Amino acid sequence: MKTDIILAGVGGQGILSIAATIGMSALSNNLHLKQAEVHGMSQRGGAVQSHFRLSSKPIASDLIPKGGCDIILSVEPMESLRYIDFLKKDGWIITNSTPFVNIPNYPDVDEVIAKIKERKNVIILDADKIAKEIGSPRSSNIVALGAATPFIDIPFESFEEAIKLIFKKKGDKIINANIEALRAGRAVADAR
Amino acid sequence: MQKLLLLGAEAIAQGAIDGGMSGVYAYPGTPSTEITEYVQHYDLAKERNIHSQWSANEKTAMEAGLGMSYAGKRAMVCMKHVGLNVAADAFINSAITGSNGGLLVTVADDPSMHSSQNEQDSRYYGKFAQIPILEPASQQEAYDMAYFGFQLSEKFSIPVMIRITTRLAHSRAGVERKPLLDQNELILPSNPTQFVLLPSIARKQYKGLLNSFAGFIEDSEESPFNHYFEGTDKKLGIIACGLAYNYLMENYSETELTHPLLKIGQYPMPRAKVEKLMKECDEVLILEDGYPIIEELLKGYLGKEKVHGRLDGSLPRDGELNPNLIAKALKLASEEEVTEISEDVKDIVKNRPPAMCVGCGHIDAYNALNEALSDYGVGRVFSDIGCYTLGALPPYNAINSCVDMGASITMAKGAADAGLVPAVSVIGDSTFTHSGMTGLIDAVNESSPITVMISDNFTTGMTGGQDSAALGKIEDICKGIGVDPEHIIVFTPLKKNHDEMVAIMKKELAYKGVSVIIPRRQCIQTTKNVALNERIRELNLR
């Protein structure tokens, strides 16, 4: 198997937690992985992306070639479009619909959503709303990840196990909230 | 053994620890910060009593690392590329003194300037110092090079540079560990004058360095990090340095690479291997993530038709490489495939620049400063490097310069010397101890009419909240340097204190000598850091 994912969002939105969760799941399935991420200045409210590559064979480049990406997973709608040239023609966009507005010239959200919908394979979900509904407003990133899990060739249980490991130090309450968030996101994808 | 999932930067730390390191010395700087942080948070490093506290700047780090090497132990010094400029004096001279215990200088370059002022290539510095350089292509090689780098250093009694770039430093992959090696015993250098660079001794040491060079090349020739892959299509040969090798191979994940390929991971270049490639191939493409240093070397004044790379436009002259750019250079993809950006999306997707955090104290300080300066007009604020540099952007437009660590105070002084009075300097607490203090002495010695704002948030914020060497000491340092205590003024940058801050600033701007104003409030990113709060409390109770 081979899955190339671009994780997109804004500094502080939990991109690296998503990356860590997929990374841990991949590791427990003995997959090769490379994950390039952004640190430093950009994390201060700037656009942040992570190239995430999974494969059953060794991976050469830390960066995904243009037109080679299977999934864009975005925790904010406009950011999913920033990397659109990387996406394969039949690749999937999974994006949160709640915008993160920290710039004065944020585009019209409807226009952004319409543009995303021009692609063939799209899941748009209000991850913020879903996270609030399950009483875990800070887990919207994990909700978005949940919606992407059907397209990543890793058993769903592995993602749950990964969350247990990653949030171990934060206690059962946080673990359970994140697992519930993951399942809620997955349910959206399954119901499509 | 199960593989560890490590950033390239972390792989270097792990490799150095497993390779018998006794201390790491560094000043935080993206993309090098995670090396030292990894050592700081690793239980094994604590058990093995490995030094890992931050240094005041890269020069003090380099010198301390050299001192640990002098005492026979294995040390690593880490910095970002521009940090090496700060450490350059000690670094170049360390090639002349040589080392005793293994000494690695790990420098993280930032092509494409993701988080930097320039994209200088540290391999030039390594070449300038005439020492061996290691350049990993993968996280595993980063680990291996740190692990074996100490042995290479000790074999020739010479510091060894490890050069990485942002992309590798901040990319994660599986890494396999090697057996944990013992640390060195304390042992003085066998040559008692080696570290005394009096001219007569330095001349001798320098000859020794020059004589070692043939050995460095010989070692490169045999190095497992330099590999010649035979190929049948000799119309083109390829030299791929460090990470560029991965981008090349990405283009051959489905098909076979038939061109002869020389993969470079250790410098000086393996001469025989390079000659073989140049001889057997009609043309040669050089892939290096950074400056065209090898390309320039091989091009010389002649034979320029034969060598391709960044200088003849086969690859862009600036910015980091990627698989697409290399596909284009190999004519595997068209220009459009590489550079085309979907036109319809371009209009929707807006830039999202980094910004100061909501609620950050720097914002309140800048709002007050802008108002206090309104009587004098714009163009008087010299800044430094840190989160507060983001004050250059709208809506603040609060600063007029940012050149290097410490340049704010000295540039303000120079401008004041030229007659721009008042001139204002903005510097952070950590940057002040990094390189601001010496400039302040110059200003005090001449009673320069400048106002220095040391925006103190108790931490090195931009790189993620490392300890600041200035913690709890700024007023004392300023007093010690000779600033009149009446003109050292501390206040809390909060919206409710705006008028008070403006009044203080106006008064100090009118003063015809050195003033230091200190807006002081903890970085909002670190407020939740209980340990830091406790430390500040302790310092306050002293």
Fold and architecture overview:
The complex is a heterodimer of chains A (192) and B (542). By secondary structure, chain A is of the alpha/beta class. In chain A, 39% of the residues lie in helices and 23% in strands. Chain A contains 7 helices and 6 strands. In chain A, helix 3 links the parallel strand 5 and strand 6. Chain A starts with a strand and ends with a helix. The model of chain A has no long low-confidence stretch (mean pLDDT 94). The mean pLDDT of chain B is 94. At the A-B interface, helix 1, strand 2, helix 2 and helix 3 of A face strand 7, helix 10 and helix 13 of B.
Biggest interface, and residues per chain? A-B, 45 and 49 residues
- The N- to C-terminal Cα distance of chain A equals 24 Å
- Classify the beta-strand content of chain B into a percent band: 15-25%
What structural class do the secondary elements of chain A suggest? Answer: alpha/beta
Cα shape of chain A: globular
Number of strands of chain A: 6
Query: Could you tell me the mean pLDDT of chain B?
Result: 94
- Helix fraction of chain B, binned, reads 40-55%
Q: Major beta sheet of chain A, specifics?
A: 6 strands, mixed
Task: Please tag this protein with its features.
heterodimer; A: 192 residues; alpha/beta; 7 helices; 6 strands; B: 542 residues; 6-stranded mixed beta sheet; 5-stranded mixed beta sheet; 20 strands
Secondary structure layout plus pairing:
The complex is a heterodimer of chains A (192) and B (542).
Chain A: E1 2-10, H1 15-28, E2 32-36, E3 47-55, E4 69-74, H2 77-82, E5 87-96, H3 109-117, E6 121-125, H4 127-133, H5 140-148, H6 156-166, H7 172-190
Parallel strand pairs in A: 1-4, 4-5, 5-6
Antiparallel strand pairs in A: 1-3, 2-3
Chain B: E1 4-7, H1 8-18, E2 21-26, H2 33-40, H3 43-47, H4 58-70, E3 74-80, H5 81-97, E4 103-109, H6 122-129, E5 133-134, H7 139-156, E6 160-165, H8 166-169, E7 171-175, H9 199-222, E8 227-229, E9 236-241, H10 244-250, E10 261-264, E11 266-267, H11 271-280, E12 283-287, H12 293-299, E13 307-308, H13 323-329, H14 335-339, H15 343-346, H16 361-372, E14 381-382, H17 407-417, E15 423-428, H18 429-445, E16 450-455, E17 459-460, E18 466-467, H19 474-481, E19 488-491, H20 498-510, E20 515-519, H21 530-541
Parallel strand pairs in B: 2-3, 3-4, 4-6, 5-6, 9-10, 9-12, 12-13, 14-15, 15-16, 16-20, 19-20
Antiparallel strand pairs in B: 1-7, 5-11, 8-10, 17-18
Helix pairs in contact in B: 1-2, 1-7, 4-5, 5-6, 10-13, 16-20, 17-18, 18-19
